[in-house]
User: What shape does this take?
Amino acid sequence: MQREELLIDRKDDLNMSKVIKFKQKGEFKKTYAFFDKALNLFDSSILDIYGKKGVEALRSATPIDSGLTASSWYYEITNDGTGKVSLQFKNSNVNNGVNIAIILQYGHGTRNGGYVAGRDYINPAIQPIFDELADKAFREVSKL
Assistant: This one.
């Protein structure tokens, strides 16, 4: 059995010393076991499914002029080796160093001093995908 104590001294406005004591008995075997199960439970192929769904949602929501921006969506799944896995949506349509999907989303200035207002198309398209993924992950973790 492991026993730890933490003492914190704090001076308040009256220059009186207060001691806060925390005592912990036992071990964290069950907690560590739960997190190990949760970590091993996650199958990154699920992200591949939601990546494809996200790309399709973004393609259909992207404003179409030439269709190049809509067809340039893709996703990447990265794993940093510590158990952190991420799903990133990207767009490869870049003109003169400017990502066209971003200026469609947020707006941009024009050569003659005008401004083209942005149109929020990314967030409404991708939010249902993130919600569905979060619900699925919650259901899986709840099974533990």
User: Anything to note?
Assistant: The two ends are 26 Å apart (CA to CA). The CA atoms of residues 133 and 139 lie 10 Å apart. Residues 43-142 form one domain. The chain has five helices and eight strands.
